[in-house]
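Can you please make up a whole protein chain along with its backbone structure tokens because I've never seen that pairing?
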Amino acid sequence: MKELKHYMNLRRQKLLNLVKGNDVLLILAPPVYIRTADQHHDFRQSSDFLYLTNWEKENSALLFHEGKFNLFIEKPTPMRLLWDGHVPDIDEAKVITGIDNVFYKEELPSHLSKFKNKNLHYDFGKHAANDKFVLEYAWNSITSTQNSVGILRMIKDEYEISMLKKSCEISALGHKDAWQKLRPGMNESDFSLEIEFAFRKHGAQRNAYGPIVAGGKNATCLHYSSNNQKLNENELLLVDAAGEYNYYASDITRTFPINGWKSGGTHEQQIIYQIVLEAQLKSIAIAKIGMRPMEQHKQTIEWLKEGLLKNGILKDPEHIKKLYPHGTGHWLGLDVHDESPREINGEAVEYVPGMVFTVEPGLYFYAEMAEIYPKFAGIGIRIEDDILITENEPVVMTAAIGK
């Protein structure tokens, strides 16, 4: 495999076909946010910025116009070096990014002031301070970078696929380690610590997202985040957690009995688990060239519905919308939810080799549904894997963790 610089150059070349004419593309590094008092949250570079430059530092900007890339970086100062250590200068930035036109950030306003009434490609609405800065200039229109960089990021190159496979491998190993530690009486926070430690141990630099460690009825809350309740016997534990490797995310969900894999769970838990598992396996099997994500989702809904009907559970076919209230999957890459489009020029995107996405059906018998289906009250089950589209069969990159 070639060096990352090779792939970044190719990505920047491809952008020429998506940001045309006199249009301007601007990517600003996110602000460094205050956590409390004089403490700051850890900085994590914009994924679009990383994709095109591999530049990790804050207080920076990337400007593209008429086929020319300009990188703006923070100017090193004695005080900055004293408190935070080495800050790369212009010459180092050129080597890291492969971009020849590098300036200090203080020069950015003079560059932007030249672009009056031009169309801007910018990721508006993410960071208020950045938005305020952008709106100080007179633009004809502002278009989301999802329609330019997002389209490029939809199909992964060889480097990205290798990073994603490694991220998935690390997260699968982390899940294996943590599930072996599961015992009734633990707290959700205990398991969260175990799995996050395991991700780091196997090579992840950080979490890909905030872990969901949801025991019992907590699993019926889709984005449960408290992770602080006792794990009880005869209940299930749903864990949606994964690590990030070299900025590439993975995304895994498994649901198992708190009493251990071999206990099998209650009869009701087994039935729902099998319905979700069968739907997931079928959904993965149809993830091939030409399939559209929405068609895959519709088919997955039908398989879940059929499973519930076959087992005499579903009292009203319309209930499937509440028992399965989320999508079947999402794009995956530098972000756990890569912001690539589902449609281009009004046409639904079809799977092609190099696309990576999740397949994650689930069934959730939360409060409202629990009243209608009391035997299944409090059961929440989701199974999620990360899939790579190839010329042949889909590759399950997270297959190393059982289900």
